[in-house]
Amino acid sequence: MDNGSSEVDARLAGRLRGLRMERGLTLDGLAGRAGVSRSMISLIERGESSPTASVLHRLATGLGTTLASLFAEEERFDVSALARRVDQHAWRDPETGYLRRNLSPPGFPSPIELVEVILPPGARVAY
Description:
Blueprint: H1 3-22, H2 27-34, H3 38-45, H4 53-63, E1 90-92, E2 99-102, E3 115-118
Antiparallel strand pairs: 1-2, 2-3
């Protein structure tokens, strides 16, 4: 795993655990709501597993949040509506190689999120 991936995994691990705890959910509680095994959630929260897009989607749904918020810092209200490319979080699905870049600024309070998705030729992603 390259340094960029491990940095994203570490940020995701902390954010997932923080969101779960903010909502007062145990690992078992989130597992039941998201349809993801307790052990998989634990591995992700410890930064020992790179989840697929499908798993991330289920976790976000189980937490009642957006996929982008899993990669964002805490929500802030002093954030610009513009996110420069260097500040846009990107994530690559380890299974399919699809790239998902958050175009919306991290932490920006908005009900919508803009993303760029690059799907390699012949790849399929099931949600």
